[in-house]
Amino acid sequence: MDTITQVLQDSNLYRYKGFCFFKELMQPEYIDSLQDFEIREDDVFLITYPKSGTIWTQQLLSLIYSEGYRNGTEQMDTSERIPWIEFQSLSKIDHNRRPSPRLFTSHLASHFVPRGLKNGKGKIIYVMRNPKDVIKSLYHFEAMAAYAETSPDFGHFFQKFLDGEVFAGSWFDHVREWYTHKNYFNILLIKYEDMIMDLRSVVKQMCTFLEKELDDESLDTVVKRATFNEMKKDPFANKENMPEDFFDFKIGKFMRKGTIGDWKNSMTVAQSEAFDKIFQEKMGDLDLSFTWDIKLESHM
Length: 300
Ligand code: A3P
Prior knowledge:
Number of strands: 7
Helix content: 25-40%
Shape: globular
Largest sheet: 4 strands, parallel
Strand content: 5-15%
Bound molecules: adenosine-3'-5'-diphosphate
CATH superfamily: P-loop containing nucleotide triphosphate hydrolases
């Protein structure tokens, strides 16, 4: 087995094969065993780097796949409908006994996912978000999640993020690896910012990819029930059903701002410029652009 190293002193994260895992929640043996996890043709995996639109896309998948959820007659936690594959200790679900089509959620890097997916079996939706907003969102999330350590200030967290010393490791590695390996998978790449700017088009794109035909009225309902304001009212989307000691809702909420460009309210000009330089160095060779601000719509 590859080396397991501690991430920073006193951290509750360990690094394994380039990824940072929570010690109490994720075991390397289990993560390795996922390679052999048997994939079915109609499996769907939603994969993201944290804070890139996971809950939002879970909501969309729930609405697309379940008419009962769409018409409000079915109350079900999205994390039961679209469970995590890597958090074995959180969900005791036996995936092999689940009826098809099975929907999964994951934050894993592409080298950890079941090898069956690499043969084009099953479908993957990978959601990306501009990393400056990911930093901002993750900074707030860290403060409310009991299992993540809290940074004393934004500057401290900013550096930790750049060094990849946060859960899931480096954003640059995650996005780069998925993006450059996309041809090995049956994958749809989505950007959070495109969802913000034209959710209906993204939902249509998802439906085509998933081969799920929805009439116009159903499509409208999906879009309406997945807006930020609708989801803000939904206790499941806010993870209010999680064990009490998991999140401190006095500090923050899952459905926090849901916008593009909030990083500007925390990042200094110097931090932003330093980030841009690193972004160019690490990602500049990729044919991949992000929207950094909703008004300027500037691309890098
Ligand atoms: P902010 O903290 O910037 O508000 P994840 O689900 O991957 O953890 O991502 C959480 C981020 O997605 C949060 O970002 C949250 O507000 C945002 N989000 C969730 N649902 C959303 C929606 N319907 N519209 C816009 N943003 C949404």
